[in-house]
Amino acid sequence: MVDGLEALSLKLFSELLGRSQEEILVELALVRNELKNSTFHAMFDIYVVYGQKPLEAKSESH
């Protein structure tokens, strides 16, 4: 997560929010420190839902 943080953030924050590269890099340094902080344990619930079409169309009988 830390590895790709700069690439994603530079594009987003510079183009959409108009921030300078220097501002973004300072913020990213703070974010990296927080992510490496072992006193905070983040936990996320992730739900995965998937489906599959039937292989053959079933004929309806009336």
Descriptive report:
The protein is 45% helix and 0% strand. The protein has 62 residues and is mostly helical. It has a domain at 5-36. Helix 1 crosses helix 2 (21-36). It starts with a helix and ends in a 26-residue tail after the last helix. 0% of the residues are buried. The model has no long low-confidence stretch (mean pLDDT 85).
Structural features:
single chain, 62 residues, mainly alpha, elongated
Short description:
With 62 residues, the protein is mainly α. The protein has helices at 5-16, 21-36.
SSE layout and pairing:
Blueprint: H1 5-16, H2 21-36
Helix pairs in contact: 1-2
Structure class = mainly alpha
The total of helices stands at 2
Helix content: 40-55%
Overall outline:
elongated
